Give the backbone structure.
Amino acid sequence: MKKNYKFTISYDGTRYFGWEHQPDKETIQGKLESVLEKMCGEFTDVIGAGRTDAGVHAQEMVANAVFESDLEPDEIRDYFNRYLPEDIRVLEVREASPRFHARYKAVGKTYRYTCFDGPVTPVFDRKYLTAVDTVLDVEVMRKAAVFLEGEHDYKSFCGNSRMKKSTVRVVDSIKIQRNKGYVYFTFHGTGFLQNMVRILVGTLLLVGKGEIKPETVVEILEAKDRKAAGPTAPASGLCLMKVDY
């Protein structure tokens, strides 16, 4: 009998073209579905909580898949990790209710973006951060972040210019913290638009460098125009930390 299984997955997205499977391209979903097909003998959809972009990482992505197996959940986890490349790991497999859907049942997500503004960029973290050539003013970025929190139309921060659905989202928390040369931006919200976190970071970096004032982000929000916001920060610094249900 087929059962619904919930997966918690961690991956280094550096060499992948994002989550969603694409013809002739290496993707996270594609790798998972390939192993699942090997295990079950038939193709099965692996449904993710969201679609991370090319080069974006995840600490705890959640997915689900419906299939039949005689293996226990821990054995399914071990089977996946035996055949997955070393930059993708299944952390946990649990049997879920038939109605559980990784994407539609998600009520919140936490993303973290990492920058480094110290004099010498770290060697071993270099694939997971964005090096900035100016010492960032964390306090003024925090002032700007307050204006970006709440329920707003984030059309100015959407990378998809053809987006026809609502661009209103709720971002209930933006925290900016410094630890020596590292600057961490942590976003929590009910959902995010394409490239939204990276564009928010790119705009906050302009504030942190003194190129725009904190109050300017209000004008950017009200413009509802992607051209009004800052650049899209590189994918390498972004990591999906957690999905809430």
